[in-house]
């Protein structure tokens, strides 16, 4: 199924992974461990990838950035819920996905993903490709200027592709990264899109690359701004508590996690988004008037950040 367009996307993604991990290494001072992997013959999912992981760094407690390129005999249910005509179709998927969990509670956690999926339509039809991706920010303590910078960078990346893209993908992100069982947002959002084919292959590829290229511009200034903010045990415990919400979303609601596990993907790489430490507390809620309560009352509710 692979061809020149897929090869171009693969080269772009591997370069993007290297650019991002090099920038994070420069900030943290610790290098990523690179784990190249390949699916064994005979497994339902075939392919390869590179998982890069940094653990126990000075700035990042855990930072994972993974590239994968896999082929499978049947699209999993999580990929065909909006494309029922492709149920059971063979597919090829490649992408880069990252989650960075900072050590300092004043530095927000961030997620970014860009991907391409190609499927063969039943009956020997032409291959069908679509794109997905986005980035979203999960702060533990809210700062207006950080949220505005992140969203403005996302909006600028999408501007060449139509004035409708940022408002639409921002709303999609707010809807998607939402813990329905708690009626609570995971963070302050960003942009998210899936099943994107309306721009054609070249347009979808260009938009997806623009999103990937914007990531470091959106996130690194926030890290530099907050990394040395003093904090104590109270802030640390609140960070661990809010990380619990992150874990809940990824395991219960995230389509990417479900896609990887349902298709027989490499579980260690799929779950690199998990934070190293986390806590849950029964019915714990921040007290009114505290910075912790301000996060839940002013930053997590949906709002316009531009």
Automatic annotation (TrEMBL):
One of its GO terms (molecular function) is coproporphyrinogen oxidase activity. Belongs to the aerobic coproporphyrinogen-III oxidase family. The gene is hemF. It is found in: Cytoplasm. Its EC number is 1.3.3.3. It catalyses: coproporphyrinogen III + O2 + 2 H(+) = protoporphyrinogen IX + 2 CO2 + 2 H2O. Its cofactor is a divalent metal cation. HAMAP family: Coprogen_oxidas (MF_00333). The lineage of its organism: Bacteria, Pseudomonadati, Pseudomonadota, Betaproteobacteria, Burkholderiales. Substrate binds at residues 97, 113-115, 264-266. Keywords: Cytoplasm, Heme biosynthesis, Metal-binding, Oxidoreductase, Porphyrin biosynthesis. This is Oxygen-dependent coproporphyrinogen-III oxidase. Involved in the heme biosynthesis. Catalyzes the aerobic oxidative decarboxylation of propionate groups of rings A and B of coproporphyrinogen-III to yield the vinyl groups in protoporphyrinogen-IX. The record marks 181 as: Important for dimerization. The keyword NAD does not apply. GO terms for biological process: protoporphyrinogen IX biosynthetic process.
């Amino acid at each position: 199924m692979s061809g020149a367009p897929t090869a171009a996307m693969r080269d772009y993604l591997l370069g993007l992974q290297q650019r991002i991990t090099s920038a994070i290494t420069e900030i943290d001072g610790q290098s990523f461990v690179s784990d190249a992997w390949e699916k064994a013959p005979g497994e339902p999912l075939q392919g390869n990838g590179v998982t890069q992981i940094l653990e126990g760094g000075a700035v990042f407690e855990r930072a994972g950035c993974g590239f994968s390129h896999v082929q499978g005999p049947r699209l999993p249910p999580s990929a065909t819920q909006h494309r029922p005509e492709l149920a059971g179709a063979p597919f090829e998927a490649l992408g880069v996905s990252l989650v960075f969990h900072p050590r300092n509670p004043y530095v927000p956690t961030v997620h970014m993903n860009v991907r391409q999926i190609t499927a063969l339509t039943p009956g020997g039809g032409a291959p069908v490709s679509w794109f997905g991706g986005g980035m979203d920010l999960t702060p533990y303590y809210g700062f207006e200027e950080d949220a505005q910078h992140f969203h403005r960078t996302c909006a600028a990346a999408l501007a060449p592709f139509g004035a409708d893209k940022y408002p639409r993908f921002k709303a999609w992100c707010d809807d998607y990264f939402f813990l329905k069982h708690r009626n609570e947002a995971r963070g302050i959002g960003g942009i998210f899109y899936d099943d994107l084919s309306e721009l054609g292959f070249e347009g979808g590829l260009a938009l997806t690359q623009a999103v990937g290229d914007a990531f470091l511009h959106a996130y690194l200034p926030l890290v530099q701004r907050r990394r040395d903010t003093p904090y104590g045990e109270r802030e640390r415990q609140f960070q661990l508590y809010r990380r619990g919400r992150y874990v809940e979303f990824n395991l219960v609601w995230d389509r990417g996690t479900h896609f990887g596990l349902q298709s027989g993907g490499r579980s260690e790489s799929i779950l690199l988004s998990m934070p190293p430490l986390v806590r849950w507390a029964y019915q714990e809620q921040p007290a009114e008037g505290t910075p912790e309560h301000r996060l839940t009352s002013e930053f997590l509710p949906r709002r316009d950040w531009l």
